[in-house]
Write a structure and sequence with these properties.
- This protein has a two-stranded antiparallel ribbon. The protein has a two-stranded antiparallel ribbon with strand order 3-4.
- β1 and β2 form a beta hairpin.
- The longest helix has 25 residues.
- It has 18 helices and four strands.
- The chain has one domain: Orthogonal Bundle (ADP-ribosylglycohydrolase fold).
- The radius of gyration is 19 Å and the shape is globular.
- By secondary structure, the chain is mainly alpha-helical.
């Protein structure tokens, strides 16, 4: 069934898809929030600050419990960009990487020191959300990559030496394009990743992660989803480190009960390949979402990114009702996340009724301008 081609969805299919979309976006945000307070700490320091088991509950960061980072902010702008790409398609303009670049530039604009009267008022609803103007330690690679109108491409990537997992962490929404073929999902994630993270480990990690989410959103189990990603990676030059990391994660599952030491070993290096391995491993061995996320953030690597990737996998796999309600209750920006998730699900299942040959909804076009 093609979500992007406006095929007819049954009510049960629509409800299941919306639950997975909500689960993916909320799960990634909860994982980000859980990992944020310990993102710069080694495992020993995490245990010293939070006890022998490390982080097992939301802790304070940026002045509150449940605070999210730029990883969640950019993931939301990924969703916004995808919806607006669909709307622009009616005009004959169809180049999603450019639409996503414009969305990421809108995020970049929120990171300046605007006064309330200077902020964007007419460029869609998301740029008017006050909480998104909080600056949450964005990396130099993000600020430089999105600091001008020049879009990084595969031929001329931005920050070609940057191997981190930030681009993968904003790629969850690409995997929710269930009407697309997996190779197109991977290509979009890769082309959007090189706008800020040009190292092959980073952009292939983003592509592999998006394909795994895509397979889960289509109903595959996680092991099958990883195998699909490995098959697609095999055709990509430079895939070795990412493929090896995924194989390493699969192998670690067979080594007995999950331990923090095993996660620590998978996280070594801190690049997108290692962080993806942590996420896949923790999602595979998780007893439930809480267990998987706690495993994912207690290590010396980038805890917020690992939590976000793991939460995206588990949320897509199990849907929103599997997420810990006490954590959702404190999650920063939850109302915005829910509205955007539902708008995405509505666009992907009922887009032609919102903007198509029969007419367009003025309210929708005001929310998502062409």
């Amino acid at each position: 069934m093609s979500a992007t081609a406006g095929a007819v969805w049954g009510r049960t299919e629509q409800q299941d898809f919306r639950s997975r979309v909500r689960g993916a976006l909320l799960g990634a945000a909860v994982g980000d929030a859980l990992g944020t307070p310990v993102d710069t700490l080694g495992l020993a320091d995490i245990r010293e600050a939070h006890g022998a088991e490390g982080v097992v509950d939301l802790a304070s960061a940026h002045g509150r419990r449940g605070a999210v980072t730029h990883l969640t902010q950019l993931s939301l702008f990924s969703v916004d960009g995808l919806i607006r790409a669909q709307v622009r398609r009616d005009t004959g303009a169809w180049h999603p990487p450019s639409d996503l670049h414009r969305a990421y530039r809108r995020w970049s604009a929120t990171q300046h020191d605007w006064g309330p009267d200077e902020r964007r008022k007419e460029d869609g609803w998301l740029a008017r959300e006050e909480w998104l103007y909080a600056r949450r330690d964005p990396s130099r690679a993000l600020l430089l990559g999105l600091g001008d109108d020049t879009m990084g491409t595969l031929d001329r990537p931005k920050n070609p030496a940057e191997p981190g997992a930030e681009a993968a962490a904003r790629s969850t929404p690409f995997g929710l394009l269930v009407g697309w073929e997996p190779q197109l999902v991977a290509q979009l994630a890769v082309e959007c990743a090189v706008q800020t993270h040009g190292h092959p480990v980073a952009h292939l990690g983003a592509g592999a992660y998006a394909v795994i989410v895509h397979a889960l959103a289509r109903g595959d189990d996680l092991d099958t989803a990883v195998q699909r990603a490995l098959a697609l990676l095999a055709a990509r030059p430079g895939h070795g480190p990412v493929s090896d990391a995924l194989q390493h994660a699969l192998g670690a599952v067979r080594q007995g009960m999950p331990t923090a030491a095993r996660v620590e070993e998978l996280a070594e290096g801190g690049g997108a390949d290692a962080t993806l391995a942590v996420a896949v491993y923790c999602a595979l061995v998780a007893d439930d979402v809480r267990h998987g996320l706690c495993l994912a953030v207690n290590h010396s690597g980038p805890s917020a990114a690992a939590g976000a990737l793991t939460g995206g996998l588990l949320g897509t796999l199990h849907g929103e009702t599997a997420l810990p309600p006490a954590w959702l209750a404190e999650l920063e920006g939850r109302p915005t996340l829910l509205v955007l998730a539902d708008d995405f699900a509505m666009e992907m299942t009922q887009g032609p009724a919102l903007h198509g040959p029969a007419g367009a909804s003025p309210g929708w076009l005001s929310r998502y301008p062409r």
